[in-house]
Amino acid sequence: MKNSKVLIIALAAFALSLFSVNANAQGFKPTGGEKEVSVLFAPLGGSPISIGGLSFRKFNPTGTAAWRINLFIGVNNKTTVGSQPIDTGSYFTGGGKPEGDVKSSSMTIGIRPGYEWHFAGTDHLSPYWGVEGNLTLVSASIDSNYVTSNASSSTPAGTAWQTLTGTTKGKGASTTIGINVVMGCDYYIAKNLSLGVEFGFGFSSTSNPDITYSYLGSNKTTGAAEIQNATTQKQGTSFQIGPNAVGQFKLGWSF
């Protein structure tokens, strides 16, 4: 009996809180002139706390439309061991084999300016549609230290191995331009705090730069370092058109 009373009191308190929220819901949504900053995150993904970009909006004086811009900047640097070192000098008179490392780096810059038109919706919900452009630049390079043998019957001690630095540029790099028609909604869970989702339909064109391969070696005559064996691999372009969805939520704060 006691537990039933506690349950009834808890349900009554919950219902009262809902009534209070709805009663004060007016004013939760932007009414005109507000600015809003949002972060994109994927709570159901493998890295739920990772941020997929920042978004800024500026509402018009009536709150029925807004300019917006999304920005993403990402840098990735990684070093892996390409070839294991050999500490012993039993194979060559020059001593142990050094380690060969592979260093890869990439940078992504994405900018998506756009404009939104908002519908009346409800006290908490603000549906909208809009258009946005898309420009994404990705650069990439790989530096590999190749360890080769210089061993011979006359090899001086300590010179049995030579490390050549190979460079690959353009592999994984791209330039993407496009335009989308978007639809979405924002739910204002509290004053100046919203949670939103969005999807769209549009097209984009992606071009990939030529891939260049080269390595830094020594001139056989002078011994000076020089770029050797430079080669180029051509790449193409791709074109996409159709629906697209952003698999992330927007958490926004207006001020």
How would you characterize this protein structure?
With 255 residues, this protein is mainly β. The protein has one domain. Helix content is 9%, strand content 60%. It contains one helix and twelve strands; from the N terminus they run H-E-E-E-E-E-E-E-E-E-E-E-E.
Provide a short characterization of the protein structure:
This protein has 255 residues and is mainly beta. 9% of the residues lie in helices and 60% in strands. It contains 1 helix and 12 strands.
Strands, helices and their partners?
Elements: H1 2-23, E1 35-41, E2 51-59, E3 65-83, E4 100-118, E5 125-149, E6 161-169, E7 174-190, E8 193-207, E9 211-218, E10 225-233, E11 237-245, E12 249-254
Antiparallel strand pairs: 1-2, 1-12, 2-3, 3-4, 4-5, 5-6, 5-7, 6-9, 7-8, 8-11, 8-12, 9-10
**Largest sheet strand order:** 1-2-3-4-5-7-8-12
**Helix and strand run:** HEEEEEEEEEEEE
Largest sheet: 8 strands, antiparallel, barrel
Strand % is over 45%
Key attributes of the depicted protein:
single chain, 255 residues, mainly beta, 1 helix, elongated
